[in-house]
Specification:
The protein is of the alpha+beta class. The chain is 19% helix and 34% strand. The chain contains six helices and ten strands, in the order βααβββααααββββββ. It has a four-stranded antiparallel sheet, with no helix packed on it. Strands 4-3-2-5 form a four-stranded antiparallel sheet. β8 and β9 form a beta hairpin. The longest helix has 14 residues.
Length: 251
């Protein structure tokens, strides 16, 4: 898992993290602290590119997952933002068998491609300084590409997924202990180890499984807030390689 760190939040908070107990005692006390920030983690996943097997071609369960981590101030402005995506493909045959390597490591697009990483960081920086309503208004065309001139060059990005993920992150943001000056990190780790062949007893399953973490760190590298989530994109197929799952639904 690679942790993407954002350091654009201003000067480090000098004192050590000391407020974790406040979450249990009274969460509203965290909001009242000077320089307190909300931490948010958001996801948006689709499997609509999946297809069944034929006589000549393997089927594929494909999960496209967009994720975002944000820090939001008391005015509702995004102070830091990090985004990443996975595009995980699991092949299966017309003879009901998983064809992809279930033990392989599946990297995120941020890890795989320096070009994608540069574009993703550009979009994340564009979201910084904006409110939830301003991010919602980022225009995307029918093909899932950015319409705004400032972002039009980011052609490798799934604009629909990333805008939805950032929106989700801001909507979900809470006071968990982060402060001005803390660094923001986003990490993803994806596996297809839970996939399995079809049999007489059950349908087969292509399952990209992503574990996601958003953290903030202070000057002493102590974790000041942490959010965990996971995406289980389960795409079912029968013994003839025919898709069973409704791939039009978001995960």
């Amino acid at each position: 898992m690679v942790l993407l760190l954002c350091t654009s939040c201003g000067a480090f908070r000098k004192e050590s993290a000391k407020n974790a107990y406040l979450v249990k005692e009274d969460p509203t006390l965290l909001e009242q602290e000077e320089g307190a920030l909300k931490t948010g983690l958001g996801t948006f996943t689709t499997v609509d590119r999946s297809f069944g097997a034929t006589e000549d071609e393997n089927g594929m369960g494909e999960a496209n997952a967009s994720v975002a981590a944000v820090l939001v101030d008391k005015q509702g402005i995004v102070i830091c933002c990090k985004v990443d995506c996975t595009d995980t493909q699991v092949l299966f045959s017309k003879n009901d068998e998983i064809r992809s390597d279930e033990s392989a490591a599946y990297l995120s697009l941020w890890e795989e491609s320096s070009d994608w990483r540069e574009q993703a960081d550009t979009f994340a920086s564009y979201c910084e300084g904006k409110t939830l309503e301003e991010i919602r208004k980022i225009s995307v065309d029918e093909d899932g590409r950015f319409e705004e001139k400032t972002l039009a060059g980011l052609k490798d990005l799934n604009a629909t997924g990333l805008v939805r993920a950032v929106t989700d992150a801001v909507e979900n943001a809470e006071y968990l202990g982060a402060h001005e000056g803390d660094r923001l990190g986003l990490g993803m780790q994806t596996s297809i180890a839970n996939s399995f062949d079809a049999s007489a007893e059950r349908n087969g399953q292509a399952q990209p499984y992503s574990n996601i973490t958003a953290v903030t760190l202070n000057e002493e590298n102590q974790v000041t807030s942490c959010i965990l989530d996971a995406i289980q994109a389960k795409i079912s197929f029968d013994r003839k390689g025919k898709l069973i799952s409704d791939i039009s639904l978001p995960v």
